[in-house]
Specification:
6-stranded antiparallel β-sheet; Jelly Rolls; 3-stranded antiparallel β-sheet; 5 helices; 11 strands
């Protein structure tokens, strides 16, 4: 059954993506979320269309006004742009676990991922990107991650299975954004491996009673 995501990137993050000002690492997570989320695809298409129209109407010699962002946000309060109709495939194959553009970074679907075990029940695979650290994580059913907060931003996108933390339940396509104000312990669902794509721009900080001593060894 197809899951329509309930957790999305914030408007400021989508605007930065639409404007092309987001670095490669977080852009990969946003773009992969867009592949799974019709609502955000339409929202970004609207941002791009409205931003392009505003800029095309402006005098090329005039700097972009400070009110451009406000104008775009105001116009986005209207009905979303309709998505372009998709061509029907005569013989659809199985839906890949990894959508584009992530699949191109991996060189194939989930079976091409080269996992390494980090702790019992958790396997990771690094993805080469500029502008931050991106990794895939495969978490065994029912496993709780160590309690932690963040020195910077962390974005997590669910690709398969799901997890729960204090902010809610996240399934395929759902996007979680956390920062130093969040201290949480995600727990994978019991019905199968949870596979996520995660971005960080600074090391995590473990906050659990027995895990804090590992903080000097943490990486982004």
């Amino acid at each position: 059954m197809t899951h329509n995501p309930h957790h999305h990137p914030g408007t400021d993050l989508l605007l930065a993506y639409a404007a092309g000002t987001l670095s490669e690492a977080p852009s990969l997570l946003v773009a992969t979320h867009l592949a799974l989320c019709p609502r955000c695809r339409a929202e970004v298409a609207g941002m791009e269309a409205i931003g392009g129209a505003l800029l095309s109407d402006a005098d090329p010699g005039t700097p972009v006004s400070a009110g451009l962002l406000s104008n775009v946000l105001a116009r986005l309060d209207g009905p979303p742009l309709a998505e372009a109709p998709r061509r029907r495939s005569m013989a659809p194959g199985p839906t890949p676990v990894l959508p584009e553009p992530l699949r191109s970074y991996i060189g194939g679907d989930i079976d091409r991922v080269r996992w390494r075990r980090t702790i019992p029940g958790l396997h990771e695979a690094d993805i080469s990107c500029s502008g931050g650290s991106v990794r895939m994580m495969r978490i065994r059913p029912g496993m709780g991650m160590p309690q932690h907060t963040h020195h910077g931003d962390e974005f997590t996108l669910v690709l398969q299975g799901g997890f729960t933390d204090a902010s809610g339940h996240f399934l395929r396509g759902d996007f979680a954004a956390t920062d130093p104000s969040v201290d949480h312990r995600p727990v994978a669902d019991e019905d199968g491996d949870c596979i996520c794509l995660a971005f960080t721009d600074a090391p995590l900080r473990l906050t659990g009673r027995f895990m804090r001593w590992l903080n000097p060894f943490m990486r982004a």
